[in-house]
Amino acid sequence: MSLRAQRGNRMLYRANMLPCDCHAALVMTWKIGNAYTECNHIKNIYLRTMNFSSKLLENAVAEFAKLPGVGQKTALRLVLHLLNQDKQDVERFSTAVTKLRNEIQFCRVCHNISDLPVCEICSSHRRDHGLICVVEDTRDVMAIENTNQFNGVYHVLGGLISPMDGVGPSDLQVDTLIERLKPTDDNEVKEVVFALSATMEGDTTLFYLHKKLKSFNITITTIARGIAFGGELEYVDEITLGRSIATRVPYENSLSK
């Protein structure tokens, strides 16, 4: 029996001891010849089949393998890369991660990641505070900011409503959004733009928020959805294509300015 077959048998035997329903996933993972999986139970089984010359090396690989999108082989390459770097570079890397975890803050206004109690966007007088863009997380803020087309402020929900994942409205920053929409002497919100993903969870969240906000005397809009630039119609899904046809615009309005 080959070494690979022996290792595979050991992995499948250990799968019977898993505290989750990952046996079938492990079998499929092994059959396709790829040890990558998001299940940490399976990752640990695979790590135990690798022969490490150092316990410190094994522990470091195990920690890197917990990162999303990082398999065991990639984790091993990353750890070996760090070992080949100068000690000062590794210490800077470690310090940056530690400070990130210990010192990072969330803006008390919009809940975006920030170094200060109030982020630079919310504290800027150049921004239109009467225009709020509602997004799922910080990555969406960064994506919109990179377009240089939005001059308002943001509100980060911290997720989307997903009953399958046990995420409800109470788990999101909905109450603080409603508080921001109440008129004050300093500012009055005129428009709320929903920039949520075009998924089932995104549409569910959008529908819920629209019901909660429609009592306010404000304009509620959502970002346009359609065919991406350079996309071919035969590869576009039916929902996107249907929405593009239903929300068609005059040709003059589609020209880049």
Please sum up the structure shown:
This protein has 257 residues and is an alpha/beta fold. The chain has helices at 3-15, 23-31, 40-49, 55-64, 72-83, 87-103, 120-123, 138-145, 175-181, 200-213, 238-246, 251-254; strands spanning 105-106, 113-114, 128-135, 152-156, 191-194, 219-222.
- Count of DSSP strands: 6
Oligomer type: single chain
Structural class: alpha/beta
| Uncertain stretches of 5 or more adjacent residues | 25-37
DSSP strand (E) fraction?
5-15%
Alpha-carbon distance between the two ends: 67 Å
Strand order of the largest sheet: 4-3-5-6
Shape: globular
* Computed Rg: 24 Å
Q: List the total number of helices.
A: 12
Largest sheet: 4 strands, parallel
CATH topology of the largest domain: Dna Topoisomerase Vi A Subunit, Chain: A, domain 2
The total number of structural domains is 3
Percent of residues in helical segments? 40-55%
Under the CATH scheme, the architecture of the largest domain is 3-Layer(aba) Sandwich
CATH class of the largest domain: Alpha Beta
What is the H/E order? Answer: HHHHHHEEHEHEHEHEHH
What is the mean predicted local confidence, pLDDT? 82
Organism: Mucilaginibacter gossypiicola
Keywords: DNA damage, DNA recombination, DNA repair, Metal-binding, Zinc, Zinc-finger
Protein name: Recombination protein RecR
GO molecular function: DNA binding; zinc ion binding
Notable traits:
257 residues, 46% helix, 3 domains, single chain, two-stranded antiparallel ribbon, alpha/beta, 4-stranded parallel β-sheet, globular, Dna Topoisomerase Vi A Subunit, Chain: A, domain 2
